[in-house]
Amino acid sequence: MDFESAVKTINILLREKQPVTFNSSWIRKHALNVYQYIQKNVRAEIGGIDWDRVTSALDRKYHKKWKPSYRTNAAAYRKKSEVNLILDKYKAKLYAFISPADKNDEHVRDIICIALVRIAQNGNILAREEIMKLVRFTIDEWIESRPTLSSWEGNESLIEKRVEACIRCYRYSGTFLGYLLKTLEYAGRGLRSNAEYSLTR
User: What are phi and psi of 189, to 5 degrees?
Assistant: First the structure.
């Protein structure tokens, strides 16, 4: 078995059984051999199974059905080595947060985001700080280039709160930055930018 065949098997099972939701326990129950392959071969940088890699490879229609179990109220801690595992692995691609050259850069950028978000959700404060710092480059570019986000200009504290909330609430497979973008678009409706307000006084 390889990764492609494991994903194909899960897709077939989901199509046949049509569960409302599914998680790692569902996969273990219905395809033990697939689960065992994933457990052994699909690992996250800091340990454990990289379920984000698995679920993102499934047919898109199944992404939002994935309902993993997450620890709530994880104890806060600071562990720089966990963050460095991600940053060192992708250091040649960190420029993608400022100016991605193509779709591949955007894809790698989101892999970095999700890896850091998962560590932050485990309680690592340094991972949360790092992801917030990196995505601000992307958000600033969005504010400049997307009219739907122009109202966020100058609202630094509100942006920070929204990013923190997205880090905390991100659960399903799919792009973290896509989730963040939609959140800012919806939350920005009716929001008046501080920059605009200061010019009209």
Answer: -65, 125
